[in-house]
Amino acid sequence: MYNVSFSIILKNQREDIWRVISSHGNLNYFHPFCHTNKVIEGDKGSIKKDILIYLNGVVFEREFYQWDEMNGYKLMIGKKNGKKSKVVWKISKTKNYTSLSINVFPYKTDKINSLFYPFVFYFYIKPKLKSYLKSVLMGLKFYLYNNKKVVKNQFGKHSWFS
Fold this sequence. Notes:
It is built from 3 helices and 7 strands. The protein is α+β, with helices and mostly antiparallel strands.
């Protein structure tokens, strides 16, 4: 299965990271390509479903199917009635630091011939997704360290979402 991941080391405690990434509408604060993030299903302790509207108007639903307090969560993301990609957010703590990783398992599009898909994935999809994940995690780090909301496209534009 194809996947793309990116990790960031943070000086924050696990609890601080969890508080931010598990809060309702969290992407509004640190996601540089987010126009709006709104919970449509959930309770005080967790999110079940939310909507992410990107700067370019693309609308994705995120459906959370595993919520592991203080450690991360798993979700499916994509257009409302379209194919979905699996995403795993994971907080890891060692003696010296805390890290947060995001691992994306993108859906395989029918628009690309199966013979060419590995080439397209490794030379186009993977670099684009890695750049996207890096910007999202840099946004989180900026927000945690400065207690300031990121601005739109703070770390550069992205052709899929800006």
